[in-house]
Amino acid sequence: MSYTSLLINTCDVVHRTLDKWGAVVAMWTESGVKCRIGYKTQLIRDFKGEQVISYAEVFFLTSANVGHNDRLFFDGREWSILKFQRQQDSVNVHHKEVFV
Predict the structure, then answer these.
(1) Are residues 79 and 56 in contact, defined by beta-carbon separation less than 8 angstroms?
(2) Residues 40-89: pLDDT tens digits?
């Protein structure tokens, strides 16, 4: 079974370019990105090291264009990315995990 067959959901990725003060300079949307959404409430540390509650964990392929400043849109709601990490197995980077 391949990893791509496990990606049963889709979401929209809202890409944002920010200036040095954090204001949005440009914004565009990539629709229908294959992913797997796992609804799990857990306490995590975000980019700043603060403890926050994550409501879902979203898995992407390594080729998916998802970054720290982006937002995800699924279930009729736009979600901020709290934590972003790449998971590696014994050979290479396997997938991306995004906590929202």
Answers:
(1) yes
(2) 899 999 888 899 999 999 999 877 888 888 999 999 999 999 988 877 76
Mean of per-residue pLDDT scores for the chain: 87
Q: What are the b/e assignments for 1-27, b being 16+ CB within 10 Å?
A: eeeeeebeeebebbeeeeeeeeeeeee
Query: What CA dihedral angle connects 23, 67, 54 and 27, to 10 degrees?
Result: 40
73 neighbors 11 (Cβ within 8 angstroms): yes
Spelled out in words, what is the top-level CATH class assigned to the domain 3-99? mainly beta
What predicted TM-score, i.e. pTM, was given to this entire model? Answer: 0.82
Measured CA distances, 6 to 10, 19, 25, 34 (Å): 12, 36, 35, 10
